[in-house]
Amino acid sequence: MMPAAQPLSPVPATTQLASAPAPQSNTLVSVPSDAYVHVIESGESLYTVARRYNVTAQAIIQANGFSSPDKIFVGQKIVIPGKASTLAALGPKPSASQAVDTLAPAAQPLAKPTAVASLDTQAKTPAATVKPLAPVSDAAPAAPVAEAKPLEQPKSEPVLSGADKFRWPVSGRVITDFANSKGTGINIEAPEGTAVRAAENGQVIYAGSGVEGYGNLILIRHPNGYVSAYAHLKDMNVAKGTVVNRGDNIGTAGKTGGVAKSQLHFELRKGATPVDPVPLLAS
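The chain above was modelled as a monomer; its predicted structure follows.
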């Protein structure tokens, strides 16, 4: 319920944060005197930054003339479109620490390198509930820091179950659709303690509470290039590195993170791009 991709982040086929400023086109060369500038921190993606400032990733891309939005790097300065004084209030706080791995296309863990986006429920709009992942800061600055040990690879790589579509992780009414989540995922109403099931065979690349606004979050990388995210969990039954099968009980629905009532925030990402999960879920 990984609020909009502002950003489920950390969501393996996902946005990567490079450790060094290699790209030239993504570097902010000149900054307008009245513009608000954000410095990319570890654990942030373009979507998490967008969520933090309540703007769209596309708006940031256009404001900075990015040709490759998935190549942002730690320490890079980017212009955030909007009123500087308003944006400054949403910016990083000195005491906030970030924790999450990046949803990397190559299946990199979500510990400190990237993040996923997530959202809220009807009680709170995705953007309002989960501060930009910094969310995926207000989805970004997190308190606990996830361990950065490498992802243990299974003896044999997971294979798809053979089903045409992903399975619903939980049964319930969709209370926030993809559009209203600012393009991050959907929120499904579910009583606290309801079993949450893996949408498809895969490997857990992140399990923790290091993404502010998402509460307990699990990210699973699937053999078909997708990464699924499950947020606001009450309990988590799997750990990073666990290989799961379609339908396995990975945790229970809850209201951890930035939501007021029990629900599940669910995301699907193809590469670095969040997609509407509903058309990809079995009816």
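The longest strand covers residues 226-236.
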